[in-house]
Design goal:
- With about 300 residues, the protein is α/β, with parallel strands linked by helices.
- Helices cover about 40% and strands about 15% of the residues.
- The strands form two sheets. Strands 1, 2, 4, 5, 7, 8, 9 and 10 form an eight-stranded mixed beta sheet that branches. A two-stranded parallel ribbon has the order 3-6.
- α2 packs across α3 and α2 packs antiparallel against α6.
- It is globular.
């Protein structure tokens, strides 16, 4: 009986602006000859994962590498109800760059995780329009308004499953590579109120410390989300560890510093290189051969 080929899955975790490191991770893996067969994403990992699974990662990378503080600011659309931002602009422009995607038309199997606001249940999104699902997965509580899909209001998947290893296995992965963006995030927000928000008057006001020196609202929100993701990720991984864990060192990036994409991407690539012996050994244990490493840009 012919042996079924082993399937490699990648679980791309949450982390807002730190998530551009996922692009570097995928590039670094491609240089080693590793092209995941399926992709599971949470929050920013859902956006990058969708682009990768659709064969549009290069288009996404080109777009985000060009970000400036001003461009990030122009993509923010205040909501004042359900969240600070609607998200129409940023996800609309993202769709222009990666295309109007459906799950059925993806080149690789892809799914993302969100959270049902009313029940707290983890929701795996694998049908219909991709960008609506990604938008739901990225809806940071208090930051973006919830997204309604199939009669349910959905928020950020990081509330329940920041690094969706379980989803990756459920999709059929035999070996799971997980990317955790929050492994070095402790104390990342202390004293950085001016860096939490882009140069936007409203967000800068929300980030401002009060008269007694207490952190501003955005700093508190960002710090709480960072702590939550770190603790939930640690608990989930204890019960369902991945076969390979990649921890890019991007904790110094603030949640809204999307203009620092080149820095995050470079660290993603460096992380793969640092972990190359571990990756090689683990894949060899599964009988998966690697291509000779190259420093040339790998097609994605």
């Amino acid at each position: 009986m012919e042996r079924k080929p082993l399937r490699v899955g990648i679980a791309l975790g949450s982390g807002a602006a730190r998530g551009w490191a996922h692009i570097g991770i995928l590039r670094g893996l491609a240089r080693l000859g590793i092209e995941p067969d399926l992709v599971a994403g949470c929050s920013i990992g859902a956006l990058v994962g969708a682009a990768y699974a659709a064969g549009e990662l290069e288009a996404l990378e080109h777009w985000v590498r060009g970000f400036t503080r001003l461009q990030v600011m122009t993509l923010l659309d205040p909501a004042f109800s359900g969240g600070l931002l609607r998200g129409d602009k940023v996800f609309g422009v993202a769709e222009e760059h990666v295309g109007e995607l459906t799950f059925a038309a993806m080149k690789k199997p892809f799914a993302c995780v969100a959270t049902e606001l009313e029940t707290g249940r983890e929701r795996w999104l694998q049908e219909g329009g991709v960008m609506a699902a990604v938008r739901a997965s990225c809806s940071i509580p208090g930051m973006f308004v919830p997204v309604r899909i199939n009669e349910q209001w959905l928020i950020d998947g990081a509330v329940v499953n920041p690094v969706p290893i379980s989803l990756c296995r459920a999709m059929g992965a035999d070996l799971v590579i997980a990317v955790n963006l929050n492994s070095d995030s402790r104390h990342a927000w202390a004293g950085r109120d001016d860096e939490v928000a882009p140069k936007n008057p409203l967000l800068q006001w929300l980030a401002k410390r009060n008269s007694n020196g207490a952190p501003g609202m955005l700093s508190v929100m960002n710090g709480a989300i960072s702590i939550m993701q770190e603790r939930i990720t640690r608990a989930r991984m204890a019960g369902d560890p991945p076969d390979v864990i990649l921890n890019p060192q991007v904790g110094h990036l603030a949640i809204m510093e999307f203009h620092r994409a080149s820095e995050a991407i470079a660290e993603g690539e460096a992380c793969v290189e640092r972990m190359r012996p571990v990756i090689t050994a683990e894949l060899a244990r599964f009988g998966i051969p690697l291509a000779p490493p190259t420093m040339e840009p790998a097609p994605l």
